[in-house]
Design a protein that fits this description.
This protein is α+β, with helices and mostly antiparallel strands and about 425 residues long. The chain is built from 7 helices and 22 strands. Strands 15, 17, 18, 20, 21 and 22 form a 6-stranded antiparallel beta sheet that branches. The radius of gyration is 28 Å and the shape is flat.
C-alpha cells in the first residue's frame, strides 16, 4: 500500500503527482529531492533506494534519467514497492513508446489515466499492458525519437553521428498507422551484457555473458510463433571448458550455463529441435443487456486440437466465482462463471501446449465456442404480459398472480 506516487526530472521538476490516501504532506516531493541532492553533496554517494524522513518512507528508482518515487507511512515490503515502480515505468514506456521528460509532459493525461487503473486508493490493481488496453482509451502523442537530443557527457563526441533508433524500442503498443490501420509487426531483440576481468598481463580472469531474448509483438489474432535457436545448443557446461566457443555468427556450439523462459512459451519441442512454440487463446464474454439484469450459471465450452496436452489458464485480476478446466479425455476447454452483470466484460486467457507442431491457424482445428446461460427477468423478444385475468368464482376468490420472464440458451454457438 502506497500513499503517493510522483515522477521528478533531473532538475527536481514535478512532472507527475498522484496522492492516493492523503496521509503524507503535499511537499513530500520537494523534501525527497532535497534529501537526495544533499546526500550526494555531502560526499556519501548516491542516496539509497529506500530511506525514511520524519516518519515517511521514500522508495525510488531511476529510469531513463527520471526519478520514480512512492511514499508511505506504513511498513511495506521495499522489494515489492521497488518492483512496482519499475513496472509502472515499463507500462508508461509501452504506451508512450519513448520514456523521457518530453513524452511525459505531452502525454500527462494518458499517464494519469494509466495510474488510475494501475493503483486504486494505494493498492495495486494490475501492471499488465495487455489488461490495461481494455480500460485505457486515450491515444498517445508520439515523440519523434530521431530528434531527441543525446544525454550525458558522451554526447559531445556524437554531434556528427546519425543514429536510427530501434522501432520496437520507441513504438507505442497502441499506436496505429495513418488512417487507423494496425501494422502487422513483430520484433525480436537479442541483448547481451558482457562482464570480463583481465589480469595485469592481459589474461582473462573471469568472463560472463548475461543475455535475454525479448519479443514485442504487434500481430493481431494471437497467432502461434515459433522461434528457432542454434541446433548445437547445450544447456549446462557438462564438463566442457567455459572458453570452448566456436563462433558468434549463429553457427557452432553455443553453451548456456542456465536459462529460463516466459510462462507462455511451450518447451515440448525445445529439447528436440531447439524451437519455442507459443499459442494462446483469448475468450471474451460481454453482457449486452442492462446493468440491472444479471445472468446466472454461465458455462463456456471450446473444443481444442486433438494433440493438446496441457492448458494453463489466466483470469483477469479480481475475477470472482470463475472456474476453469481442461477435459483431457475429450480435449475440451471449459470456463464457468457464476454470474455476469449487464454491461460487464470478462476475459479468459488459455495457453495451450501441443504434442506436435501446429500446422496453419489454430482456428481451423479448434472450436466452435458454445455457451449456456440463464437470464432471469429478461426476454430477448420484448414480449410482455400486460395483465393476467382470472374469472372469479366468488368475491372472496383472489389468487396470487406471478409472472416470470426467463431467457435460457438453447443453441448459442460462435464459430471461429
Amino acid at each position: 500500500m502506497i500513499s503517493q506516487f510522483f515522477v521528478l526530472s533531473q532538475r527536481g521538476d514535478n512532472i507527475v503527482f498522484r496522492d492516493y490516501r492523503g496521509e503524507v504532506p503535499k511537499g513530500s516531493a520537494e523534501i525527497f529531492f532535497r534529501k537526495v541532492k544533499f546526500w550526494k553533496e555531502d560526499g556519501e554517494g548516491d542516496a539509497p533506494p529506500v530511506f525514511n524522513v520524519d516518519g515517511v518512507n521514500y522508495f525510488h528508482v531511476k529510469v531513463a534519467g527520471l526519478l520514480f518515487v512512492a511514499t508511505t507511512r506504513v511498513n511495506v515490503s521495499p522489494s515489492l514497492v521497488l518492483e512496482l515502480l519499475q513496472r509502472i515505468a515499463r507500462v508508461i514506456k509501452d504506451y508512450l513508446g519513448i520514456l523521457n521528460e518530453d513524452s511525459l509532459w505531452k502525454n500527462f493525461v494518458l499517464v494519469y489515466e494509466l495510474l488510475d487503473e494501475v493503483i486504486d486508493f494505494g493498492y495495486v490493481q494490475t501492471t499488465s499492458t495487455e489488461v490495461l488496453k481494455s480500460y485505457v482509451f486515450n491515444e498517445p502523442i508520439v515523440v519523434d525519437a530521431a530528434r531527441l537530443p543525446t544525454l550525458g557527457p558522451a554526447s559531445i563526441f556524437m554531434q556528427g553521428t546519425k543514429r536510427m533508433p530501434g522501432t520496437a524500442v520507441t513504438k507505442s503498443v497502441v499506436a496505429n498507422e495513418p488512417g487507423g490501420r494496425k501494422r502487422e509487426e513483430i520484433f525480436v531483440d537479442i541483448i547481451e551484457k558482457i562482464s570480463v576481468t583481465f589480469s595485469s598481463s592481459g589474461y582473462i580472469l573471469t568472463s560472463e555473458i548475461d543475455g535475454t531474448i525479448q519479443m514485442k509483438s504487434y500481430l493481431t489474432g494471437n497467432p502461434e510463433i515459433r522461434l528457432a535457436l542454434n541446433e548445437e545448443l547445450s544447456i549446462g557446461r557438462g564438463g566442457r571448458s567455459i572458453y570452448d566457443y566456436n563462433s558468434s555468427t549463429g553457427s557452432g556450439t553455443v553453451i548456456l550455463d542456465d536459462c529460463n523462459f516466459h510462462e507462455s512459451v511451450h518447451l515440448d519441442s525445445f529439447d528436440i529441435d531447439r524451437t519455442l512454440t507459443l499459442a494462446e487463446v483469448i475468450l471474451k464474454v460481454r453482457a449486452e443487456f442492462p446493468s440491472s439484469i444479471t445472468a446466472n450459471t454461465i458455462q463456456v465450452q471450446m473444443p481444442l486440437p486433438p494433440y493438446t496436452t496441457r492448458v494453463s489458464f489466466e483470469l483477469e485480476p479480481g475475477a470472482v466465482g470463475n472456474t476453469t478446466d481442461f477435459k483431457e479425455a475429450n480435449k475440451r476447454l471449459e470456463w464457468g462463471l457464476k454470474k455476469i452483470v449487464g454491461g460487464s466484460e470478462h476475459t479468459l486467457r488459455a495457453k495451450l501446449t501441443f504434442s506436435q507442431e501446429l500446422h496453419g491457424n489454430i482456428t481451423r482445428e479448434a472450436g466452435p465456442v458454445s455457451m449456456t446461460f440463464t437470464i432471469p427477468m429478461y426476454n430477448a423478444s420484448r414480449l410482455q404480459v400486460k395483465y393476467l385475468q382470472i374469472s372469479k368464482k366468488s368475491k372472496a376468490y383472489n389468487p396470487y398472480r406471478w409472472v416470470r420472464y426467463v431467457t435460457q440458451s438453447n443453441s448459442y454457438v460462435a464459430r471461429l
